[in-house]
Design brief:
Number of helices of chain A: 6
CATH class of chain B: Mainly Alpha
Number of domains of chain A: 2
Helix content of chain A: over 70%
Shape of chain B: elongated
Distance between the termini of chain A: 59 Å
CATH topology of the largest domain in chain A: Four Helix Bundle (Hemerythrin (Met), subunit A)
Number of strands of chain B: 0
CATH architecture of chain B: Orthogonal Bundle
Largest interface: A-B, 86 and 75 residues
Radius of gyration of chain B: 17 Å
CATH architecture of the largest domain in chain A: Up-down Bundle
Oligomer: heterodimer
CATH topology of chain B: Helix Hairpins
Largest sheet of chain B: none
Number of domains of chain B: 1
Distance between the termini of chain B: 56 Å
Number of helices of chain B: 3
Order of helices and strands of chain A: HHHHHH
Structural class of chain B: mainly alpha
Structural class of chain A: mainly alpha
Helix content of chain B: over 70%
Strand content of chain A: under 5%
CATH class of the largest domain in chain A: Mainly Alpha
Chain lengths: 162, 103
């Protein structure tokens, strides 16, 4: 029962915050509601018993990415102009609704092979075995820091003063 | 009514659609980037929901979600650096006015 209440509350707040991101005219308020949306997604991970991912979501998205976005908003001084829609507002709305209709139809009408096994908690050690263990994801884990290093170097080169 | 896999999938589809609308319809480049983050979060919810309900003991979906987060962090860093560089040279981040590569 508690899980249902938590899911519905998180889902309603998250969807409201996501709508606020695309509908608010004030860019800064849109960024703050994006932070709220990230937090509710972390709560959704908790209801899915993915505790490690919830912590990573709070650390990476709420902690780092939102700070970067707010910093960029401050640096570009476009707050006064707001976030208006372009000429494609109506076609974009139609495309988004059509996409949701198609995907939602497919999701509801597929018979998923749901197994009724209680989830394992905590997931941290199981995830570590999965990532670093035998037959795991060791090569992607080693590629990921290379990607991050390339991204950091690219960002430094792009914003460096000439 | 208990919460099943479909609830999470519909929630992720709603988040993805909202992000899709924002990415297509907004003019401010930072808001477009924020909408892309919304879409990535929707995909992550679907990944974790599949992992929880279909293979609860393998956790493959959660591993994929971790890699999506890594790529999203790299994407945000480079994307915001590009936006700030464009703002320095052109004094605007309006995506309809950034037409350097248009002919």
């Amino acid at each position: 029962m508690g899980l249902e209440i938590a899911f519905w509350a998180l889902a309603v707040v998250g969807i409201g915050a996501a709508l606020a991101v695309v509908l608010l005219r004030d860019v800064f308020r849109a960024a703050l509601s994006l932070v709220l949306c990230f937090l509710t997604v972390a709560g959704i991970y908790v209801t899915l018993s993915a505790d490690f991912l919830a912590a990573v979501q709070v650390l990476v998205y709420v902690g780092a990415i939102s700070v970067l976005i707010i910093l960029a908003i401050m640096l570009t001084r476009e707050v006064q102009r707001g976030s208006p829609a372009n000429k494609l507002r109506i076609p974009a709305l139609v495309v988004a609704i059509l996409f949701f209709g198609a995907v939602g139809f497919a999701m509801v009408n597929t018979s998923w092979q749901v197994v009724d096994v209680p989830p394992q908690e905590p997931t941290t050690s199981a995830l570590a075995i999965k990532l670093f263990g035998e037959g795991g994801f060791l090569l992607p884990v080693e590629i990921a820091p290379v990607l991050l290093l390339a991204a950091i170097l690219g960002a430094i080169v792009l914003v460096r003063e000439k | 009514m208990s919460i099943g896999l479909e609830h999470y999938l519909i929630l992720s589809a709603i988040l993805f659609s909202i992000g899709l609308y924002g990415a297509l319809a907004k003019r401010n480049a930072i808001v477009i980037l924020m909408s892309i983050e919304l879409m990535l979060n929707g995909v992550n919810i679907a990944m974790v929901a599949f992992s929880r309900f279909i293979v609860p003991l393998l956790l493959t979906g959660q591993v994929f979600a971790i890699f999506i987060m890594v790529v999203a962090a790299a994407e945000v860093a480079v994307g915001l650096a590009i936006i700030i560089a464009i703002y320095r040279s052109r004094e605007t981040i309006d995506a309809t006015e950034i037409n350097l590569m248009k002919w």
